[in-house]
Recover the amino acids of this structure.
């Protein structure tokens, strides 16, 4: 089942909208367009060079029209926040097949200002409309929370352990001037638990931000990548899967089947194991989300993410060093994550861009030293779909 | 006069209609596969285990266990916060998302995973009944 396309293509452009946060002057499509323009400029390419278009939530037809281009390869996979990792995988395949040469992958979402947006809830006749919504599921916190208590019960995971995730992630945001919570200051696990309850077991600081923003990536063949503006970021391996749509349909609430399958494919194609990964971007829609991924991707044994994350040490200056925070052994979500950087709705694009910037050495004060590999992974909806991308810089 | 129900209402489709009609009659019905002998939920046009289209509707016992839950503290249309969103596992082996109907505002202390629960029927409108669950004493 191993893919054979490792190192055949690279990311050559990666950029976000000029600003992220509250952008009432920009529609959903305007966010897509500005991100696309910025990513192409980053690559040193023009809109006319694009012959493969991969996008969501905008459909490829409406975005090709908006951008005035006629791509010969289109992909509108919309399975949630990991769609962009899946797009990278599809772009690698399309480029290898000769179906396109320059793949433009675009995200734009007016998640906060809600300009030209549609609810993800679907019609009352859909499975979600019949078997979730009538029971008061309103917003992602009410469904992403459901696997957590089962994990607590089955593995003895605690809320205090889980509270280390937002605290460690905030440490990165403090180092990133672009992070929406950059100036909000450090937080402790106790602060997380003292914030207002949203949907138990999630408090406000367990939940991702709500913002407007966009981002885009440009992918091309390794051969073409060598002549472009920036040093290419080779794609070593990718994976994807989808197992269900609604959280109650998870066969085991404590495991994301699609994460397991997606991760296995990506590691096999890259010829790597978790110990080979220097940097992680694990989509943090909520504090618990990356805990599931640490386990299901094999970074820690099943059920042991809680004790792993709660083990901290003291720096010489007296500050706390988290496992996944600055100075920790497994740097994760180094832009500040969906929890403290930005979350527009389908955050996966921002995770991808941060991995590229880290591998290029463009991450400023939050730059992780001696990076060779990065793994980006995210869910689509509540652990339903998953996408994985393993990247390198040599 | 009573306020009209403000919560989201299901709109049944052909393959789910017997389930919702059963709920109106305060019966919890599940589709069972005549070929592999297993029930499934939510109701589909074919068995998701063996893909047979030969299905029967049978009444479930209504007994279940609390498989997992969350307590929503934010207002939602038709609900008074805090309220419990639950995944229950029916005695027949299938899981469904529903609510726990509690006699007092829910707290984590009042709930435990795998606690026994039983179905109750909430007639939210003249035409829609939602199957919910309550803790067994």
């Amino acid at each position: 089942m191993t893919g054979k396309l490792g190192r055949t293509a690279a990311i050559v452009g990666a950029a976000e909208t000029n600003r992220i946060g509250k952008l009432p002057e920009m529609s959903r499509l305007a966010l897509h367009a500005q991100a696309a323009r910025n990513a192409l400029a980053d690559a040193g390419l023009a809109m006319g060079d694009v012959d493969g278009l991969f996008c969501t939530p905008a459909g490829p037809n409406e975005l090709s029209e908006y951008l005035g281009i006629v791509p010969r390869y289109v992909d509108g996979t919309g399975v949630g926040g990991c769609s962009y990792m899946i797009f990278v995988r599809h772009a690698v395949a399309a480029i290898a097949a000769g179906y396109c040469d320059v793949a433009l992958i675009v995200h734009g979402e007016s998640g906060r200002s809600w300009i030209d947006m549609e609810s993800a809830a679907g019609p009352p006749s859909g499975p979600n409309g019949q078997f979730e919504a009538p029971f008061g599921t309103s917003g992602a916190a009410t469904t992403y929370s459901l696997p957590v208590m089962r994990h607590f019960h089955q593995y003895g995971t605690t809320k205090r352990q889980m509270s280390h995730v937002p605290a460690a992630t905030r440490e990165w945001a403090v180092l990133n001037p672009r992070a929406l919570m950059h100036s909000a200051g450090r937080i402790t696990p106790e602060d997380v638990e003292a914030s207002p309850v949203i949907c138990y077991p999630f408090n406000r600081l367990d939940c991702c931000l709500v913002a407007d923003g966009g981002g885009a990536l440009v992918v091309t063949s390794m051969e073409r990548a060598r002549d472009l503006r920036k040093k290419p970021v080779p794609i070593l391996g990718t994976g994807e899967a989808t197992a269900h749509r609604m959280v109650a349909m998870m066969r085991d609430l404590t495991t994301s089947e699609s994460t397991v399958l997606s991760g296995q494919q990506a590691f096999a194609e890259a010829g790597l194991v978790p110990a080979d990964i220097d940097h992680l971007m694990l989509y943090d829609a909520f504090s618990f989300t990356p805990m599931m991924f640490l386990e299901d991707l094999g970074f820690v044994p099943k059920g042991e993410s809680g004790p792993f994350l709660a083990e901290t040490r003291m720096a010489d200056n007296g500050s706390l060093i988290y496992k996944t925070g600055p100075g920790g052994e497994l740097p994760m979500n180094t832009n500040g994550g969906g929890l403290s950087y930005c979350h527009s709705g389908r955050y996966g694009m921002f995770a991808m861009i941060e991995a590229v910037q880290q591998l290029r050495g463009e991450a400023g004060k939050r730059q992780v030293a001696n990076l060779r590999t990065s793994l980006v992974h995210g869910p689509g909806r509540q652990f339903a779909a998953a996408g994985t991308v393993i990247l390198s810089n040599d | 006069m009573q306020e009209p129900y403000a919560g989201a209402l299901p709109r049944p489709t052909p393959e789910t209609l017997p389930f919702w009609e059963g709920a109106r009659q305060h019966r919890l019905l599940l589709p069972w596969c005549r070929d592999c002998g297993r029930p499934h939920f939510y109701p589909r046009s074919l068995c998701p285990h063996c893909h047979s289209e030969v299905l029967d509707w049978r009444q479930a016992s209504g007994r279940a266990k609390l498989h997992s839950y969350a307590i929503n503290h934010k207002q939602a249309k038709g609900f008074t916060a805090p309220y419990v969103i639950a995944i229950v596992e029916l005695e027949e082996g299938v899981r469904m998302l529903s609510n726990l109907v509690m006699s007092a505002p829910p707290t984590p202390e009042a709930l435990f995973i795998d606690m026994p629960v039983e179905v109750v029927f909430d007639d939210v409108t003249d035409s829609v009944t939602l199957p919910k669950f309550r803790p067994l004493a």
